[in-house]
Recover the amino acids of this structure.
């Protein structure tokens, strides 16, 4: 997916002004937050579980090369293939080659953020294949020709009416002409259309929530069962995953699973947890004839050794965005790329470039709620601040902001000057606001006074008043 | 090792010496909060002084990515407050800057890191200092109002301020405090965020205002002047007659003119 992160300001504005989005996000917010809270509160050992899950990820990252090679060896033992891709372009090329070699036409897909990261649908379509998303949310946005706006609920920005219109327009080709609006009817309609695709697909592509080094398994969790139909029915199964997805053992996987489901959707466990450990063996009733795993780096190994290392613990649960006030206000499309909300504000600059995504680390109040809920205790606010430092050092901070900051700091480092300038300014502001107690307009402060009054200062600063008080006391 | 000079004129041998970190917003916009803090600390038995060389804790530079200037300002602040037993600020955000972030500005092992760490351990937000360190259980103030309380993000998540202000407010005569929904949700201030992304900030403060208004409270209280000026400014622009005060003013019994109100 091509980044539009540079366009954050205008996309954010569009999000703020879209009444459908406001309604959809308001509903989603309470749903996600309340369900997660209830699921976490219902588990007395959650704090310990969270700590252990974090330690598993941290341990794996410390020995990532070892576990990846172990995973690769196990997959090969089972007759599968492992491909290493440094860049999205390499990953695309690998998947296209596998599809061509299989003589494929129709390709079903399970939800995969790495698939979005490497713009797989666009590449498959351009090469003449017919990719079909089978996760309901992904299916909806594919029909609408839109990117996902949430990593767990990709069509969260869509209202039911919009989906009804979309299905009505796009399902006529299958002889479905009635406009339905009930959720169950809409799901039934998608199911009817997708059923035929599942049965006729040549290749199935899924992502992976985990790669298990011990067994060479790739693991996906879904609530719709679409993943199972994608990875068992077609002749070829391709898994696309980031290299940070590996965990040592099945036991480790199940520990993190318990944390993932609670944080993502407020469930104790997702409805389906599916392990794929290679192609169909002799005597197996079903399963693909070929099994490929494409491991994507795309900047991850760089992060492994730098100050953003902890970001690789991310298990893509979405809790950070579900608790982010800015994400809720502007919607996922404002972020302009695959990853949104706080985790996107860290990952996007690291993956597509800080210059391209320079707004993302700044469009954050540093309120820290994301970090508070993150099951992997990733210090998101600190990383966002580090990206601001990089911007400042690389002179990507807007010149006006930079100048303002410098001028202010010049004074703040010189108490006598600071005292002189600020007491003069406060006297003036105090006089201007004396009648109303507040200012409705102020030159150069439109960012504040455009929508807010500025409470007027008392006129005399505390430091001046305190100095007087000390003199009087003597 | 910090040099703790005890040179108070009134022979306060056992009384804790507190350096008040006034914070730039209180210094410039609302000195009444600073004087309320002094009164509360003195009533609780502290000897309070205000180092004259303080300006701002440096957050605008730190959060703006200018770590060089943040470090320079931090050094100045550390020097100014080292002689005190405690540093207390009427703001969770500025106290959090000293407690959580100053040590990170300097490489581990460096002299300044040690000094920053030593100061961090003695730094507190005002209300939690009164309640947790000095053991204050009640205040003598009266304030006739139905109020609601906003949890500022840094106070809540960096300094653990949540129950302390509510418990002390419960002892204020004539005051009732009703909880708003999502009292811990950000008000949209975020330092320079509010002027860099005013439209997003306005949406956030509008949501906060709606939750305040839904309680029917006539007064909003909180512990950080930045958030309070943001909320008060938006409430006033939208002509909602909710009065806004810093919690210290109410606890000290000195709440007169609300934030953004004209003189009476």
């Amino acid at each position: 997916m091509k980044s539009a992160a540079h366009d954050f300001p205008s996309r954010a504005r569009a999000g703020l002004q879209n009444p459908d989005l406001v309604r959809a996000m308001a509903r989603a917010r309470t749903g996600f937050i309340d369900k997660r809270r209830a699921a976490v509160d219902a588990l007395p050992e959650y704090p310990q579980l969270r700590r252990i899950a974090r330690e598993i990820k941290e341990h794996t990252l410390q020995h990532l090369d070892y576990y990846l090679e172990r995973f690769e060896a196990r997959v090969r033992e089972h007759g599968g293939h492992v491909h290493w891709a440094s860049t999205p372009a390499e990953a695309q090329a690998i998947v296209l080659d596998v599809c061509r070699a299989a003589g494929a036409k129709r390709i079903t897909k399970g939800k995969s953020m790495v698939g979005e990261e490497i713009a797989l649908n666009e590449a498959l379509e351009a090469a003449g294949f017919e990719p079909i998303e089978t996760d309901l949310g992904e299916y909806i946005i594919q029909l609408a020709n839109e990117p996902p706006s949430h990593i767990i609920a990709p069509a969260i920005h869509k209202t039911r009416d919009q989906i009804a219109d979309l299905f009505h327009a796009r399902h006529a080709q299958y002889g479905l002409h009635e406009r339905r609006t009930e959720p169950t009817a809409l799901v039934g309609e998608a199911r009817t259309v997708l059923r035929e695709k599942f049965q006729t697909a040549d290749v199935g592509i899924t992502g992976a929530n985990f790669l298990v080094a011990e067994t060479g398994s790739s693991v996906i969790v879904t609530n719709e069962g679409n993943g199972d139909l994608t990875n068992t029915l077609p002749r070829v199964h391709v898994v696309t995953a980031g290299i940070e997805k590996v965990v040592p053992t099945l036991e480790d996987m199940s520990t993190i699973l318990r944390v993932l489901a609670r944080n993502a959707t407020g469930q104790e466990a997702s409805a389906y947890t599916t392990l794929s450990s290679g192609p169909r063996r002799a005597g197996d009733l079903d399963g693909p004839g070929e099994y490929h795993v494409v491991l994507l780096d795309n900047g991850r190994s760089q992060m492994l050794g730098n100050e953003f290392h902890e970001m690789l613990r991310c298990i893509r649960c979405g809790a950070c965005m579900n608790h982010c006030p800015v994400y809720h206000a502007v919607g996922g499309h404002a972020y302009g790329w695959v990853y949104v909300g706080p985790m996107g504000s860290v990952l996007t600059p690291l993956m597509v470039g800080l210059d391209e995504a320079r707004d993302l680390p700044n469009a954050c109040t540093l309120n820290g709620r994301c970090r508070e809920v993150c099951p992997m205790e990733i210090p998101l606010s600190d990383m966002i601040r580090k990206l601001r430092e990089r911007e400042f050092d690389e002179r990507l901070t807007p010149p006006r902001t930079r100048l303002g900051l410098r001028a202010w700091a010049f004074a703040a480092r010189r108490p006598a000057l600071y005292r002189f300038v600020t007491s003069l300014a406060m006297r003036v502001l105090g006089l201007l606001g004396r009648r109303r107690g507040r200012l409705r307009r102020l030159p150069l402060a439109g960012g504040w006074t455009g929508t807010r009054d500025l409470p007027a200062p008392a006129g005399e600063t505390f430091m001046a008043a305190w100095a007087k008080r000390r003199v009087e006391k003597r | 090792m910090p040099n703790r000079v005890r040179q108070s004129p009134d022979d306060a041998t056992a009384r804790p010496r507190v350096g008040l970190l006034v914070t730039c917003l209180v210094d410039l916009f609302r000195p009444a909060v600073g004087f309320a803090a002094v009164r509360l600390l003195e009533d609780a038995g502290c000897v309070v002084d205000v180092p004259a060389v303080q300006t701002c804790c440096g957050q605008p530079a730190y959060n703006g990515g200018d770590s060089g200037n943040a470090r320079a300002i931090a050094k100045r602040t550390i020097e100014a407050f080292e002689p005190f037993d405690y540093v207390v600020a009427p703001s969770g955000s500025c106290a959090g800057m000293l407690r959580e972030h100053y040590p990170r500005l300097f490489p581990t092992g460096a002299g300044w890191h040690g000094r920053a760490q030593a100061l961090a351990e003695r730094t507190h937000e005002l209300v939690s200092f009164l309640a947790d360190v000095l053991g204050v259980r009640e205040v003598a103030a009266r304030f006739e109002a139905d109020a609601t309380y906003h949890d500022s993000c840094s106070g809540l998540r960096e300094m653990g301020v949540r129950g302390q202000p509510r418990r002390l407010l419960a002892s204020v005569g004539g005051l009732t405090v009703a909880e708003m929904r999502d009292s811990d949700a950000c008000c949209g201030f975020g330092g320079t965020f509010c002027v860099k992304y005013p439209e997003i900030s306005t949406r956030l403060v509008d949501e906060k205002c709606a939750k305040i208004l839904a309680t029917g409270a006539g007064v909003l209280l909180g512990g950080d002047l930045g958030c309070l000026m943001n909320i008060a400014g938006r409430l006033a622009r939208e002509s909602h007659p909710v009065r806004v005060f810093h919690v210290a003013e109410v606890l000290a019994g000195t709440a007169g003119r609300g934030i953004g109100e004209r003189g009476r």
Observations:
- Residues 19-41 of chain A form the longest helix (23 residues).
